[in-house]
Amino acid sequence: MNNSKKIAVNFNAQKIREDFPILNTRVRGKNLIYFDNAATTQKPSCVIERIKKYYEHENSNVHRGVHYLSEIATHEYENSRETVKNFINATSTEEIVFTRGTTEAINLVAYSFGKTFISEGDEIIITEMEHHSNIVPWQLMCEDRKAKLKILPFDDNGELILDEYEKLFNEKTKLVSVVHISNSLGTINPIKQIIDIAHSYAIPVLIDGAQSIMHSKIDVQDLGCDFFVFSGHKVYGPTGIGVLYGKKELLDQMVPYQGGGDMIKSVTFSKTIYNDLPYKFEAGTPNIAGAIGLKSALEYLTNIGIEQISSYENELLIYATEKLSQIPQLKIIGTAKEKGPIISFILDNIHPHDIGTILDYEGIAVRTGHHCTQPVMEHFKIPATTRASFSFYNTKEEIDFLFEGIQKVIKVFS
Ligand code: PMP
Predict the structure, then answer these.
(1) For ligand 1, is residue 102 a contact (CB within 6 Å)?
(2) How far is Cα 213 from Cα 180, in angstroms, rounded to an integer?
(3) Could you tell me the distance, in angstroms and rounded to a whole number, from the CA of residue 131 to the centre of ligand 1?
(4) Which of 131, 136, 214 to mutate to test the pocket of ligand 1 (most atoms within 8 A of CB)?
(5) pTM of the model
(6) Could you give the C-alpha distances from 4 to 160, 343, 395, in angstroms and in order?
(7) Measured between alpha carbons, how far is 323 from 247 in angstroms, rounded to an integer?
(8) Which residue spans of the chain are classified as CATH 3.90.1150.10?
(9) Ligand 1: does its nearest atom lie under 6 Å from the Cβ of 130?
């Protein structure tokens, strides 16, 4: 939590809510309160309408046709790439590869970077708070290349122990891969410092931005990261589309991830010539509607203003943290000084699944479980947490309902 951020007193969440039809859903006679935004965000009407327009008026395959519809689809798909490039301030669209999501983007880098740059005995640094999708692809790659994973630990507040970080580097280190905002702890990691230290050893860094892209302004040139990955569905866009940003000089050297149409310039049985960036990494028909919907989502966020969003969400986080801390039986897991709008908590002697089920009867959607971060659960010696994650369409009133809902849970089990 960052108390120093300016509070967005004028942010009109009630007005914003009108853009999200799903928020009118009634759940067992109650108004839906959607606090599962870290799992996926809801979609504004402009995104839904844009996808509908694509299928009604523009649907065609890209890059391969000279006919009218194919030209429109190609133009719109490539426009989306341009919008992504501008949104994260990449230098060129060659550095923007469309993927299925964060998971596929990390798998792509693990495979291609691994095949290109990793040999036996090399080492990759990740952290103890990574999502499984920033652990398992590296394990697969390490198995294949006979390389090794080194783990940077975090403390009991959920902050990375940076004193340990530099000790992990040696002549075998080849890459650092770190989450920007932890999906289970909410911690905002000091990625600029993490990147700068790695670069002082000439080691590239991948940032998992799955939880930061929707909460903070991302400028990949300012960060200096070598790879940045995120999912469309977490940034108010469609599922099945995501982005890999990679520095051109690295992507250029890396072997393709998948083979097929569009990723080649020419194919013969004796020699195949791969396509230029970014197409070298986009084999087969891409998710055209997804990319176009993502463009619409990014434009929607830009219109509201990501700084406005960020400070309003921080205000919700401060309010919720203070409110939930009043419950004596409740313990917040993840108490870093810098946090995104995510609160994981446990209640004395009540399993998170029971908490989630009872809250659902109140219309409140939270997530329970290990949140695909089992090493984080292992650190705290707990099987699971209940997680409430906020968006700019949430309100303090909804947080009051969560507070009351938790009191009900405690009453049921007392
Ligand atoms: N990393 C983090 C930090 C995440 O929160 C998630 C999604 N929960 C992922 C990676 C994976 O994203 P996706 O399932 O959209 O590929």
Answers:
(1) yes
(2) 9
(3) 7
(4) 131
(5) 0.97
(6) 21, 19, 21
(7) 43
(8) 13-43+305-413
(9) no
In this structure, the strands spanning 385-389 and 342-347 are antiparallel
Q: How far, in Å, from the CA of 241 to the mean position of ligand 1?
A: 12
Q: Which pLDDT tens digit goes with each residue over 170-194?
A: 999 999 999 999 999 999 999 999 9
**Integer distance in angstroms from the first to the last C-alpha of the chain?**
32
pLDDT digits over 72-116, tens only?
999 999 999 999 999 999 999 999 999 999 999 999 999 999 999
Confidence class for position 389, pLDDT limits 50, 70, 90: very high
Per CATH, domain 47-302 is 3.40.640.10: yes
372 is catalytic: yes
Q: Each residue of 119-165: pLDDT tens digit?
A: 999 999 999 999 999 999 999 999 999 999 999 999 999 999 999 99
CA 60 → CA 51, 64, 162, 283, 285, distances in Å? 13, 10, 50, 17, 10
Class of domain 13-43+305-413: alpha beta
